[in-house]
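FAQ

Q: What does a record look like?
A: Structure on top, sequence underneath. For example:
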């Protein structure tokens, strides 16, 4: 059985980055990887629609990495499969966000 491509973290134990090989591709060729991304992207899009229409939960994705670690590319790839326009047309979205956005003179950090 193949190892999972992502690690599920629930906070019950610490993860040591020394134990993770960043060069491990699990012998997935590029063409196979692109095909998997397309398939998973379609599934992500469907799940995002269900989440949006249910209107009862939210999803926060936190990407942490050093400079040039691929965070921007990951965000762009995720947004390729997202229906962001649907969210931007929702006037309630801006009302909900406005309540949580710090005032311009406030310095905030998410840790």
């Amino acid at each position: 059985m193949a190892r999972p491509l992502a690690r599920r973290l629930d906070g019950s134990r610490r993860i040591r980055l020394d134990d993770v090989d960043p060069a491990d591709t699990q012998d997935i060729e590029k063409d196979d990887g692109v095909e998997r991304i397309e398939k998973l992207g379609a599934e992500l899009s469907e799940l995002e629609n269900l989440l949006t229409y249910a209107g009862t939960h939210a999803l926060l994705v936190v990407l942490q990495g050093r400079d040039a670690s691929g965070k921007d590319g990951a965000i762009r790839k995720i947004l390729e499969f997202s229906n962001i326009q649907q969210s931007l047309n929702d006037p309630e979205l801006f009302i909900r966000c406005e309540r949580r956005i710090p005032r311009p003179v406030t310095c905030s950090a998410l840790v």
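Q: Is there anything notable about this one?
A: The radius of gyration is 18 Å.
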